[in-house]
Amino acid sequence: MNYPNGKPYRKNSAIDGGKKTAAFSNIEYGGRGMSLEKDIEHSNTFYLKSDIAVIHKKPTPVQIVNVNYPKRSKAVINEAYFRTPSTTDYNGVYQGYYIDFEAKETKNKTSFPLNNIHDHQVEHMKNAYQQKGIVFLMIRFKTLDEVYLLPYSKFEVFWKRYKD
User: Fold this and answer.
1) Of all helices (H) and strands (E), which one includes residue 97?
2) Spatial CA neighbour of 95 closest among 131, 154, 54
3) DSSP state of 122
């Protein structure tokens, strides 16, 4: 899958013509590569700036119960809980069409475990799809460094088989 500007996805790696230099002798591996979420946010920013689409990550609904205010500018949430189960990760509008999708990553090489998707998420995707929304799953296979887009219509077949 390419970035929206047409450039192919590449891992964060130094391209120096194969030469080893002192600048690369102390490489830190903690932040290797971009997460799927960062890649999607990068694409969504491009879509917004290019006036192609408006897509945002949906916040998880949280009910705050207790807040400590040691200073007005440094409030600390001490207790909170999830108000309702979240639906999907992203939604927005693309050329007049509602778009809604779930983004997942897996370390598996040949399959994606459907138990990573919840019934309430599938119900939400089904409802959006029935209203003619553009609905899909975006799945990154981390070990292969590949990303696939699975339209809801195809996912639904797998889901029904999984649930039966």
Assistant:
1) strand 97-106
2) 54
3) H
Judge contact between 139 and 145, C-beta under 8 A.
no
Q: Are 77 and 103 in contact (CB under 8 A)?
A: no
Question: Which distant-in-sequence residues (6+ apart) come within 8 Å of 50 by Cβ?
Answer: 4
The answer to whether 75 and 67 have CB atoms below 8 angstroms apart is: yes
- Which residue(s) pair with 77 in the sheet? 67
Question: In this predicted structure, what is the pLDDT of residue 3?
Answer: 61
Question: In the chain, where are the structural domains located?
Answer: 33-59+85-163
- CATH number corresponding to 33-59+85-163: 3.40.1350.10
Cα gap 101→15, rounded to integer Å:
33
Q: Residue 100: CA atoms inside 13 Å, Cβ hemisphere, count?
A: 19
Tokens of 125: 């995707």
Radius of gyration, alpha carbons of the chain? 20
| Tokens at 119, concatenated | 């019934």
Segment 73-78 mean pLDDT:
83
Mean pLDDT of all residues belonging to the chain: 82
Q: Give 38 or 26, the one with higher predicted confidence.
A: 38
**pLDDT at position 14, please?**
42
